[in-house]
Amino acid sequence: MNANFTEAELAQRRTASRRMAWLIGAVVLAIYIIGFFFKRG
Amino acid sequence: MSVATTTVPGHAGEHHGEHHPAGILRWLTTTNHKDIGTMYLTFALTMFFVGGAMILAVRAELWQPGLQLMKPEFFNQLIGIHALVMIFAALMPAATGFANWQIPLMIGAPDMALPRVNNWGFWLLPPAAILLTLPFTLALFGIGDGALATGWTFYAPLSVQGGLGVDFAIFAVHILGVSSILGSINIIVTIFNMRAPGMTMMKLPLFAWGWLITAFLLIATIPVLAGAVTMLLTDRHFGTHFFDAAGGGDPILFQHLFWFFGHPEVYILLLPVWGLMPHVLATFSRKPIYGYKAQVYGFIGIGVLSVIVWAHHFFTVGMPVPALIYFMFSTMAISLPLAVLFFCWIATMWKGAMSFETPMLFATGFIVLFGIAGLTGLVLADVAADAQYHHSYFVVAHFHYALFAGGIMGVMTGVYYWLPKWTGHMYDEKLGKWHFWLTVVSFNLTFIPQFFLGLAGMPRRIPDYALQFTEFNMISTVAAFILGLSQLLFAYNIWKCVKGGPKASDKVWEGAEGLEWQLPSPPPYHSWETQPVVK
């Protein structure tokens, strides 16, 4: 793959980055919240 | 890796923020990765001196037995805040500053993928640092009883019963955690989505690989720390008993939660440095990096192992024997991928045309001294031996070999290596070499005595000690002051380089390889308006 970025591709990559960022953020929040529901054995 | 550059039609001059504001508004509102990297690095250097001043006060108190300069409560506050400042406000922001400056340059991206998030990530840091240190000031006016006095580990039940400083530190850790998460998300998505055409993951510079693993570790562990300190907060103020044995809680649970974060944190601090080292060693050995793939798999292996070994930090708490054995062997297993890294670093230098400019001096010094951290870490990983060394000065010496020699000297390596690229000027080589030798000699004179003190039984976090420990403490204190003062040379050299000096060429170092050296020194405000293609 040796094609250059165009403005459109750059915009598309930034959109993909934002989606991935929200996904990772959701995982972080899930780890934080799930911990409170653990009970001692 | 061969590189071709091609202009992207219509890209130059259209980037947002082309006419960026000047003065303070530039720094408050900037979304430029280089500006934000500079802010991170400046903040880190400032906090390095704040944290250093705190520990010099501690060393002054430890000059001789008895209480000379401060009350034990204030001593405890200084050591706890020293650690939090050095870890969260100096070393981590320095590594993030490197990431901001270098990752877009190294992977051929025009900027970080999420520039506004990048700005937020930085500007959360100063309020958090203020929160950490504010209780010292408030205490002067009779408000509260000073800063966090539990050590940086917040162990319950002490932290459940502690004063106002604990609440400030809990709030600060939450904010620092959010900042780290925002930075990590940005780094992950930038590496995945913004690489130049042709740069596959297995052509990614090792510095970016090191940071990628670091970012995933932060994503996995910071929420656990945040959860633990939130539970601590609710124990303190909202009637829960997560860590209060009297209410059916378990103080040891806090230690598990804290160190699930705390042990990976060591690798979070070190992986960016391990990623940087091969670049420096290859440059000044004038050879390609040895064992690229082995190092990538080494980073991944260390990352995975780092989240399953946490309980070796509290072997003495009383665990079942199978748990002790599991945590001992899993901890020792980390030495295998780490040994692979050491082998690759040494093999990179082997039979190379080496020269010892300041970055190479720091890099080779790092390998020797960080090796001592690794070997003493193996000693501490041994359950039987740890019973003797736990909570002694042996541990203090060990983790300073890891975090000062491994972490901070690694950061200094990176600063000297990349500063000419960032500023367009060469730093003062003679001053750099003075800084290196003063740092290495005084560092060893500070911490080798602490190994002996620990072996002889001197406990850590105590402002007074038995008479037989006096001589080693005096040596350690004098050397610590030389170590601290010699860092002024570092700050002066940076300032001098920023202000001027001989012009740096684009490539800066004869043996340097990689995309970042294709750009002018300093790089233009918007990186890579001419798109590189990696072949």
TrEMBL record, chain A:
Keywords: Membrane, Transmembrane, Transmembrane helix. The chain crosses the membrane at residues 20-38. This is Uncharacterized protein. It comes from Sulfurisoma sediminicola.
Automatic annotation (TrEMBL), chain B:
The chain crosses the membrane at residues 36-58, 78-101, 122-148, 168-194, 206-233, 296-317, 323-348, 360-381, 401-419, 431-452, 472-495. It is a multi-pass membrane protein. Pathway: Energy metabolism; oxidative phosphorylation. It catalyses: 4 Fe(II)-[cytochrome c] + O2 + 8 H(+)(in) = 4 Fe(III)-[cytochrome c] + 2 H2O + 4 H(+)(out). Its main location: membrane. GO terms for biological process: electron transport coupled proton transport; oxidative phosphorylation; respiratory electron transport chain. Residues 27-535 form the Cytochrome oxidase subunit I profile domain. Keywords: Cell membrane, Copper, Electron transport, Heme, Iron, Membrane, Metal-binding, Respiratory chain, Translocase, Transmembrane, Transmembrane helix, Transport. InterPro entries: Cyt_c_oxase-like_su1_dom, Cyt_c_oxase-like_su1_sf, Cyt_C_Oxase_1, Cyt_c_Oxase_su1_BS, Cyt_c_oxase_su1_dom, Cyt_c_oxidase_su1_bac. Pfam families: COX1. GO terms for molecular function: cytochrome-c oxidase activity; heme binding; metal ion binding. GO terms for cellular component: plasma membrane; respiratory chain complex IV. Belongs to the heme-copper respiratory oxidase family. NCBIfam families: CtaD_CoxA. Cytochrome c oxidase is the component of the respiratory chain that catalyzes the reduction of oxygen to water. Subunits 1-3 form the functional core of the enzyme complex. CO I is the catalytic subunit of the enzyme. Electrons originating in cytochrome c are transferred via the copper A center of subunit 2 and heme A of subunit 1 to the bimetallic center formed by heme A3 and copper B. This is Cytochrome c oxidase subunit 1. The lineage of its organism: Bacteria, Pseudomonadati, Pseudomonadota, Betaproteobacteria, Nitrosomonadales.
